[in-house]
Amino acid sequence: MTVTEWVPSTAMQEVATGTADTVLSAYETILADRSVARYDDGEGNVMWGIFSYEEAEKAAVDSDAFSSVTVPEGAPRILPLMSDPPEHSAYKRLFNSCFRPDRIAVIETRMRPVAAELIDAMIGAGTADVGAQLAYEFPTRTLCEFIGLGDEWKFYGRWASEMEKATAAGVRNAGERLPEELMAEVTPPLLALINARREAPGDDAISRIVTAGLDGAPLTDNEVVGLVIALFLAGLNTTASGIGNLVYRLARDQEAQQFLREHPDRIADAIEEGVRLDSPQQEMPRRAKRDVEVAGSVIPAGSAVFLNYGSANVDPKSWENPDVFDLDRPDKRRHLAFGRGQHSCPGAPLGRMQMRVVLEELLSRTASFSVAGPVQRLTWPRLSVERLPLRLVPAHAA
After folding, report:
1. What is the DSSP letter of 281?
2. Cis, peptide link before residue 86, omega less than 30° from 0
3. Is 348 within 8 Å of 98 (Cβ atoms)?
4. Mean pLDDT over residues 36-41, rounded?
5. Does 216 or 104 have the greater pLDDT score?
6. Integer Cα distance of 215 and 207 in angstroms
7. What is the pLDDT of residue 341?
8. Can you name the residues that pair with 390 across neighbouring β-strands?
C-alpha cells in the first residue's frame, strides 16, 4: 500500500496565518483518505502519525503495541509520561494524590487574585499581549505555587520554554536523550528544594512526592527531580495554550463572548469545546513495540509514532459539525485533549481550574475584548498563540 506523506508546515499553513478558523483544514484530506501517514522532518527523523479519532483512541490504550518510553534504555525519562504499565500505574497513583480536589481549591483561592491583578493591568493599559502577559505568566506562577518552587517562576518559565524549543515539544530527535545542558541547569535548584522538603514538608506537590513515595517506597532525589520536571513541563505549555486559544477564539466571536459574560455557568462548557476544537497538544509521541497494522497500514517495529489528538478531535467521522464551536454539543467531553486510558492527564483538573478562573475574571472585568493586531501562532505539535494583542474595554465603560 502506498504510504501517505504528511507535512505539518504545509498542512497547517492556513491555521498559522489565521485564514482557517479551525485545524480541520489541516487534517480534512488525510482524515477522508486514511488514518495513517508518515512525517519526515528533513533532519533524519521519520515518524508515523495516527490521525483518526477511532484509531488514535485505540492506540492510546494499547500499551502492548505502542510504548510511551520514547528515549533510549537507561536515559533520563519524564515520568510517568515516559513509562508503560505496570511501572506507570504506581507513578500515576502518586500524581493523582497530588491533584486532590481540596488541594486544587486551595490553589484557586491563592491564585485568583493573581489572575485578577494581571487582567486589571491589561485593561488599564487598554491594549495588551495576552500571550505573554497572561496566558503564560498565570500558569507558570500557578504551577510554581502548586509544586512548591517558590518565587522563581521567571527562571522555571524560561527553562521550560528552552526545553520546549530544544525538543520541538517532544518531536525533534525522537528516541534521543533529553538535552543534558538544560537538565544540568535545573537539577541543582530542584535538589535544594527537595532536600528542604524532606526536612520540613509543606502542603505542596514536592512535599507530597517525597513523603508519600512510590506506593510507600522512598524515592531517590533524582527520581523526585524527574517527577517535578514532569509536573511542570506537562502542565505549563498545555495550559498556557488552552488559555490563549480560548481567549483568541472568544476575541473573534463577540456573540459567544457576550453569552458567556451573561451566563458564566456555561464557561465549563466553553472550556471543553475549546480544548476539543483547539487542542493544545496536537500530538503525543509513542514507539511501536512490534509491527502494528493500523487501518490497513503497517507501522514497522521500533518506529517513532505520534497519536494526533488534534485531528482526532475534529474527525468528521466521529463528530457532527466538528469545526463548529458548539456549547451545547452533548458529547464534547469525550475529546482526547487530555489523553485517554492510562495516560489520561492527572493534572486536567488543575488545568481546567486555571482556564475557568482566567475566563471568569476576564469576562467579568470587561465589556468586550477583541484582536488588536497581528497574531503569532504555533501550530504543531502544539497549537498556541504566542502573541495575542487584544483591545480590552473595561466593564464600567459599557
Report:
1. B
2. yes
3. no
4. 92
5. 104
6. 15
7. 87
8. 128, 371
pLDDT value of residue 378: 94
Q: Give CA 201 to chain center in angstroms.
A: 29
* Geometric angle at alpha carbon 264, from 263 and 270, rounded to 5°: 95
Does the pLDDT at position 282 exceed 90?
Answer: yes
Cell readout for 276 is 476539543
pLDDT > 90 in the chain, percent: 82
Average pLDDT, the chain: 93
pLDDT tens for 60-72 read 999 999 999 998 8
Q: Dump pLDDT digits (tens) for 174-184.
A: 445 567 889 89
Residue from 61, 66, 64 nearest 49 by CA: 66
Residues in the chain, total: 398
The number of beta carbons lying within 10 Å of the beta carbon of residue 150 is: 14
Q: For the residues 113-133, what does the mean pLDDT come to?
A: 96
Strand segments, DSSP code E, in the chain are 36-40, 46-50, 66-67, 127-129, 284-288, 292-294, 297-299, 304-307, 366-371, 376-378, 384-387, 389-394
Instruction: Locate 22 and state its grid cell.
Output: 479551525
Q: Please state, as a whole number, how many other Cβ atoms lie within 10 Å of the Cβ of residue 141.
A: 21
Strand 36-40 versus strand 66-67 pairing type: unpaired
Interatomic CA distance for residues 145 and 356, integer angstroms = 18
Q: How much is the average pLDDT of 199-214?
A: 94
Q: Which residues of 24-34 are buried (b: 16+ CB within 10 A; e: fewer)?
A: bbbbbebbeeb
Count CB neighbours of 291 within 10 A: 12
> Does position 142 have pLDDT exceeding 70, yes or no?
yes
**Four-CA torsion 120, 124, 129, 132, nearest 10 degrees:** -40
Q: Can you read off the three cell numbers belonging to residue 309?
A: 489528538
If one counts every other C-beta atom within 10 angstroms of the C-beta of residue 80, the result is 24
Is 81 within 8 Å of 234 (Cβ atoms)? Answer: yes
Residue type, 144: C
Burial (CB < 10 A; 0-12, 13-18, 19+), residue 192, is exposed
Residues 384 and 378: their CA atoms lie apart, in Å, by 5
Distance separating alpha carbons of residues 65 and 48, to the nearest angstrom: 14
pTM for the full model? 0.94
Taking CA atoms, 373 is separated from 79, 133, 158, 176, 358, in Å, by 40, 15, 25, 39, 21
As to burial, measured by CB atoms within 10 angstroms (0-12 exposed, 13-18 middle, 19+ buried), residue 386 is middle
